[in-house]
Write a structure and sequence with these properties.
Helix 3 packs across helix 5 and helix 3 runs antiparallel to helix 6. The chain is an alpha+beta fold and 423 residues long. The radius of gyration is 25 Å and the shape is globular. A hairpin with a 7-residue loop joins strand 1 and strand 2. The strands form four sheets. The chain has an eight-stranded mixed sheet with strand order 3-9-10-15-14-13-12-11, sandwiched between helices. Helix content is 33%, strand content 19%. This is Asparaginyl-tRNA synthetase. It comes from Vermiconidia calcicola. Its EC number is 6.1.1.22.
Length: 423
């Protein structure tokens, strides 16, 4: 990284043939300082792992700067889509009183000014913390429950906000802090309407970017990638990236049920058991390798919707699936979907919400979350509700997929994951 300079002079017609004008400099002024020898950014190949140790500096590299601009334009394209669809953008709280997913992987909020009172009846090394909000609160894992409350007022809402998961996962797809794009729509009783919204949203946003100069910049960046990156197993080249974007703007994304997905996976396993490390079973859920296979073989370049998962695999708020007209198929499923894409697997998750009061309470009891500071959520049904549904999209994963970057930590300016939060 060289020092920045301010150039002053005259802008005149060029005497050369390779350009129309040139700046004839009369004064050059150095701006700021730069310890060139000690600068961590050097004019040579540096691994992504090394660059993650200097997140405050790596944004200056052309590749990272391009990702920042692509992120900004993607947000603009999505915002424009929702405006055209008459959605209301909202801001939901970061600090919440409950765990939306019920998985328990939450960060607890505390204040360093919290009063600590020693209890004489307890051991000397124990203390009772006086909570800032009187009771334990958490960093949100999803805006969904609050979006449902707001949707009852204006029918269609969306938000793009940070979410937090205290997961110990150390993979290229997981972060402890990440952005989720979430939306809720009222007067919806057919899951296909929610899937249509997701498909139209992504197709519109990607088509907008594809018609902009940043798409050409992205392809040129891929063509100029250093040999070390090209030889990486996770590298996504120009052709593969074009296929990804082409699949996103294509029409009629495949939709299969979870039961059919298990049949497809079972058939593949019977023909080649070594294909999967985990044999697919209906009750066990889908592993990442299973999702990757479905996205590749069923989608044929397009994203794939997998619908109607078993009730026990999903959270309490999902509505039961509508029975098939012929009465066939499992009855213990919920009206939900996961959208799968090659390599990154799950990109979007959505469902119809249980809008009936007594049925919701029964589902909460079944899942063991009744009484978990969710009385206000039950009020949304008790005091008037309508059939509704929504979805959540991993925004950083989407950016990872569109840029062809192999690790989600490299599309976030300041990534946080287990044992890593430096600046």
């Amino acid at each position: 990284m060289q020092r920045a300079v301010k150039l002053t002079g005259d802008w005149r017609a060029s005497v050369g043939s390779k350009q129309s004008h040139e700046l004839q400099v009369s004064q050059a002024t150095a701006l700021g300082e730069n310890d060139a020898e000690g600068n961590p950014l050097q004019p040579k190949y540096q691994t992504p792992e090394h660059l993650r140790t200097i997140p405050h500096l790596r944004a200056r590299l052309p590749t990272n700067a391009l990702v920042l601009r692509l992120r900004s334009q993607l947000i603009a394209a999505l915002t424009n889509f929702f405006n055209q669809e008459d959605f209301v953008q909202t801001h939901t709280p970061i600090i919440t009183s409950s765990d939306c997913e019920g998985a328990g992987e939450v960060f607890t909020v505390s204040s360093n000014a919290a009063k600590v009172s020693e209890q004489k009846s307890r051991p000397e090394d124990e203390a009772q913390v006086e909570h800032f909000f009187r009771t334990p609160k958490y960093l949100t894992v999803s805006a969904q429950l609050h979006l449902e409350a707001l949707a009852q007022a204006v029918s269609k809402v969306w938000t793009l906000s940070p979410t937090f998961r205290a997961e110990l996962s150390d993979t290229s797809r997981h972060l402890s802090e990440f952005y989720m794009l979430e939306a809720e729509i009222c007067f919806v009783d057919d899951l296909s309407e929610v899937m249509d919204l997701v498909e139209n949203m992504l197709r519109s946003a990607v088509a907008t970017l594809q018609a902009s100069p940043i798409w050409v910049e992205l392809l040129k960046m891929k063509e100029a990638m250093p040999r070390e990156d090209v030889e990486d197993d996770r590298f996504v080249g120009v052709e593969a990236l074009q296929q990804r974007w082409g699949g996103m703007v294509a029409k009629d994304w495949p939709r299969i049920s979870y039961a059919d997905a298990i049949l497809i996976l079972g058939d593949a396993y019977s023909k080649e058991p070594a294909r999967f490390a985990f044999e697919p079973f209906y009750a066990d859920g889908l592993q990442a390798e299973h999702e990757r296979y479905l996205a590749t073989t069923v989608g044929q370049g397009k994203p794939v919707f997998v619908t109607d998962y078993p009730t026990m695999q999903k959270p309490f708020y999902m509505a039961p699936s509508v029975p098939a007209a012929d009465g066939k198929g499992p009855t213990d499923t919920v009206a939900c979907f996961d959208l799968l894409v090659p390599d990154l697997c799950e990109l979007v998750g959505g469902s119809l919400r249980e809008h009936r009061s007594q049925e919701l309470i029964a589902a909460m009891q079944l899942k063991g979350v009744a009484g978990h500071n969710l009385g206000w959520y039950q009020d949304l049904r008790k005091y008037g509700s309508v059939p509704h549904g929504g979805f959540g999209l991993g925004f950083d994963r989407l950016l990872c997929y569109l840029t062809g970057v192999g690790n989600v930590r490299d599309v976030v300016a300041f990534p946080r994951w287990h044992r890593k939060c430096d600046c």
